[in-house]
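> example.struct
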């Protein structure tokens, strides 16, 4: 068996581990990269003395099998965690307002006013305001995903494109500044974009990312993110890659050695199933409340018409008062439906997307495990070839095989190192994710119950006001 004839099997994203012509530059690329993240909290500055910025790495290069930018500086990670813990006095609040339609016809698009208030010194001002279009948000998410997903970080998902809803906006001449027939669609998207930015800003690393800060600070129009278009070449390739990734997730099962990850995956699957059921039921509840409001409107109109044709004076007044009360109750039912949707339903939808992002981070770990496992298989083949050349006294081939064995031993070592690092990173990210999830759901429940109690109290007040009119019928 000739060592030069050894071919590696196809892996995720058709990454080649050994193409028989690794150069010195490629060997250098196999060295674990490190992040260069500099964060500012108050008067202190947390700076990792790191040799290479991940933004300069070509993460899409097929040859960079092990060029996964895992931060190997444990002290730097600890410093970042300490800075996060000490950043209690720091705040950043992002609001999105003034949705406006720009242009006409199919070339039209919606732009949003993004206002940021913060006391973080890394930003150039305490209050910032910029105008951003929807594709800018998708472009920001793509940049963050490209830089941080491969190291095991959980990237909050951006709102999904809605071609049908946006087409209606483009073809409508009545949607200006978020008003008109498309108001519901525009308001839902505005709220979703606001939640996306605030969720990203809660992450201690993503909030200081240069692309994220540029998005919030740069008071000029950003270059159009054409690759976010569903009909672009990049969009088509992204679709094919997504299909390939899905097939790999289904067909490849790694031999899990850490029970923590096995338990977490079961927990995530169970949580996702239950959240999906709850989200479906809450959506149905919103529909029912709106139907109830519509039926209440019918009762109000019928009572008003009956009042107009009623000869009995006190009964006519009571029916008129009933019509007014039912009209108020209708508005209250609509308000409750909006509360159910924007407070409860949308948060559940967000977390279904976040659980998908968690799965993506876990899948990156699986890919690294496959690369590492494949390197082990290739090392075994190289050692076997080396032994055969040694027994056959092929000194020329033996020397080459010995060098290849040393090369693959290094790759196996780096593969294990990268796998251990992404495992540690995911555990740290999951701890942060769980804390954030508990905090968000607690705030959601409190706000939802407060609104619900307020609505019920208002409903009781309406009927108490109607009671004297009913009792006065004589």
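> example.seq
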């Amino acid at each position: 068996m000739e060592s030069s004839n050894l071919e590696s099997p196809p892996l995720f994203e058709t990454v080649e581990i050994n193409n028989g012509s690794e150069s010195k530059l490629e060997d250098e690329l196999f060295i674990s990269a490190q992040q260069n993240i500099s964060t500012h909290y108050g008067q202190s500055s947390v700076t990792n003395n790191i040799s290479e910025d991940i933004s300069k790495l070509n993460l899409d290069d097929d040859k960079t099998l092990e060029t996964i930018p895992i931060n190997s500086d444990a002290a730097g990670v600890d410093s970042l965690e300490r800075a996060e813990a000490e950043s209690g006095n720091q705040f950043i609040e992002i609001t999105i307002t003034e949705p406006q339609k720009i242009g006409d016809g199919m070339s039209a698009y919606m732009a949003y006013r993004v206002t940021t208030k913060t006391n973080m010194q890394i930003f150039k001002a305490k209050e910032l305001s910029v105008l951003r279009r929807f594709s800018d948000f998708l472009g920001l998410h793509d940049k963050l995903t490209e830089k941080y997903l491969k190291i095991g970080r959980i990237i909050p998902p951006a709102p999904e494109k809605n071609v049908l809803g946006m087409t209606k906006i483009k073809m409508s001449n009545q949607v200006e500044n978020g008003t008109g027939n498309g108001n519901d669609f525009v308001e839902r998207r505005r709220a979703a974009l606001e939640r996306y930015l605030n969720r990203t800003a809660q992450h201690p690393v993503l909030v200081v990312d240069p692309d994220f800060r540029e998005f919030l600070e740069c008071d000029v129009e950003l270059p159009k993110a054409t690759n976010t278009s569903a009909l672009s070449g990049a969009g088509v390739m992204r679709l094919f890659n997504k299909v390939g990734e899905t097939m790999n997730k289904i067909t490849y099962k790694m031999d899990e050695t850490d029970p923590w990850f096995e338990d977490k995956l079961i927990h995530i699957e169970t949580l996702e199933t239950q959240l999906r059921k709850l989200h479906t039921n809450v959506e149905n509840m919103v529909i029912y409340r709106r139907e109830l409001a519509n039926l209440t409107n019918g009762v109000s109109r019928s009572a008003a018409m009956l009042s107009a044709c009623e000869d009995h004076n006190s009964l006519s007044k009571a029916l008129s008062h009933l019509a007014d009360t039912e009209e108020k109750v209708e508005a209250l039912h609509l308000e409750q439906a909006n509360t159910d949707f924007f407070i409860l339903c949308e948060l559940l939808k967000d977390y279904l997307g976040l659980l998908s992002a968690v799965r993506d981070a876990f899948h990156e770990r699986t890919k690294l495990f496959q690369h590492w496992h494949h390197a082990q298989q290739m090392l075994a083949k190289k050692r076997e070839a080396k032994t055969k050349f040694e027994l056959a006294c092929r000194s020329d081939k033996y020397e080459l095989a010995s060098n290849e064995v040393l090369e693959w031993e290094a790759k196996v070592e780096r593969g294990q190192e990268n796998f251990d690092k992404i495992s540690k990173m995911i555990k740290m990210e999951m701890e942060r994710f769980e804390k954030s999830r508990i905090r968000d759901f607690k705030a959601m429940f409190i706000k939802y119950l407060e609104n619900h109690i307020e609505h019920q109290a208002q409903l009781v007040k309406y009927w108490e006001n109607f009671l004297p009119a009913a009792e006065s019928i004589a």
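> remarks
The longest helix spans residues 313-391.
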